[in-house]
Design a protein that fits this description.
- The protein folds into three domains: about 10-50 and about 215-290 and about 395-445, FAD/NAD(P)-binding domain (3-Layer(bba) Sandwich); about 90-205, protoporphyrinogen ix oxidase, domain 3 (Orthogonal Bundle); about 295-395, Alpha-Beta Complex (Polyamine Oxidase, Chain A, domain 2), CATH 3.90.660.10.
- The chain is of the alpha/beta class.
- The chain is globular.
- The two termini are about 35 Å apart.
- The longest helix is centred in the last third of the chain and has 18 residues, at about 430-445.
- Helix content is about 35%, strand content about 20%.
- It has helices at about 20-30, 70-80, 115-120, 125-140, 150-160, 165-180, 185-200, 200-205, 215-225, 270-275, 280-290, 325-330, 350-355, 355-370, 375, 430-445; strands at about 10-15, 35, 50, 60, 65, 85-90, 90-95, 100-105, 205-210, 230-235, 240-245, 250, 255-260, 260-265, 295-305, 310-315, 320-325, 340-345, 380-395, 415.
- The strands form five sheets. A seven-stranded mixed β-sheet has the order 8-7-16-17-18-15-19. A five-stranded parallel β-sheet has the order 10-2-1-14-20, with helices on one face.
- The chain binds flavin-adenine dinucleotide.
Amino acid sequence: MTDRWTKAPRVAVVGGGLAGLAAACALAENGIQVTVFERRPYLGGRASSYQHPSTGEIVDNCQHVLLGCCTNLLDFYGRVGVQDKIRWYDHLTFLEPGGRASIIGSSALPAPLHTAPSFLKASCLSLMDKLSIAAAMAAVAPKIPRDRGESFLTWLRRYGQTDRAIDRFWKTLLVSALNEDVERVSVTYAAQVMRESFMKSATAGRMGVPTVPLTQLYDRAGDYIRSRGGEVRFRSGVQSFRAEFAGVKLLSAEGEEEFDFVIFAVPFDVLSRMLPQSTAADPLRQTLDRFETSPITGIHLWFDRQITELDHAVLLDRTIQWMFHKSKIQQRDSGNGGGSYVELVVSSSRSLVEKSRGEILDMAVAELRDFFPAVASANLVKGTVIKEVHATYSPRPGSDVYRPRTQTVWPRVYLAGDWTATGWPATMEGAVRSGYIAAESVAKVAGVSDAKYIVPDLPAAGFMRLFG
Ligand SMILES: Cc1cc2nc3c(=O)[nH]c(=O)nc-3n(C[C@H](O)[C@H](O)[C@H](O)COP(=O)(O)OP(=O)(O)OC[C@H]3O[C@@H](n4cnc5c(N)ncnc54)[C@H](O)[C@@H]3O)c2cc1C
């Protein structure tokens, strides 16, 4: 600390999701006194688990996966000591209705050709589909195209993609990665996902799946903060703030409290409601009004017997998009003596928002039977549907320009969250990046001149090194 701060500055972090936790952990590591305000009784925000009231089971609000290119998320996991709770997979199984499988994974060939042998063998795509996909990949290999307002679907058509390549390859991978339909996704984000994760190196494209319920991962961040002199306050919703010359006053149910700095790591709509009714706040309020959201639906099913040996699979040509075999991945008893607990995920699930839980369960079990014949003879012991109607912000063409930076018009107020300007889509990696960016800014103002929390991207491998 510099002389200006004779004692450690007090920093409030509002929001105990990944962005807030990443910021709080980084600051606590540097001896800054941190207080996390979290409205709920647990940590993790949109990536959390809880005991589900009607099933009695501990469920994730939705399956979360990460990729090897999530360098900041992995740094955060390392910092709080949960990196061994992630299982890594270097292949994906694409299932067609009827059960035919295509396994796409990496080989010893140099990037971006490392997936080529399995891709060429994949029976879910024809030779024409594969040639068109290869041409589109070649276009983004040297450089991610700029966002010129064009949707990714228009771009795909311009690059001659076949209908099946769009449905079975591009939609499958990008709708789940970006939680938005390809006709509503910016070209830049779509190309970034393909280039940074699937083309850059075999390590970048590995898929990581937590082996424990999500809140077990993020509770450890709470322990980390407390063991470094910080505080985590649950059921502590902040209502509004007043930025003053010498500090920031936070108003919560507990009353008013002053801090030297505040990082708001709450969703954009929550922040909008907290902003002061002053003209200084108007530009930010107008910016926040421009965001739109997209839903994700998780369907949790408990069967009385095993329905598949697979840990996970991509499901083609149906409403349900992914299957995660949670009882196998988490090595937990499914609660019914040798049965299976699976979660099905539908991203960008607008078509399900108005449907009843019963309708969704019936549809899901019927569709699952098309991929796994064992479902026909299995009994569904229980099931539930978790709809996250405002799961993530929609990465539409042109949306990047209005994502705000961490600095605000108030010198002691900073922003974090997956919707802020990180260059990443709304993901756990984007959230952690935003938290690290905010923490770096606060730490520097607080006198930690060498504060550097952001971790560089993975280096390109193989032929991708030609492009950097
Ligand atoms: C269904 C679903 C599936 C997803 N799947 C994936 C995936 O597979 N991979 C991936 O990388 N990402 C995935 N994401 C995205 C990822 O979960 C988010 O990008 C990330 O968790 C956002 O973190 P955050 O900290 O920015 O926001 P949040 O997690 O929303 O955190 C904000 C926190 O602020 C708290 N809060 C709100 N109001 C107040 C208040 N007034 N006072 C105090 N606290 C308050 C909230 O309770 C919350 O804990 C998924 C998201 C959803 C919803």
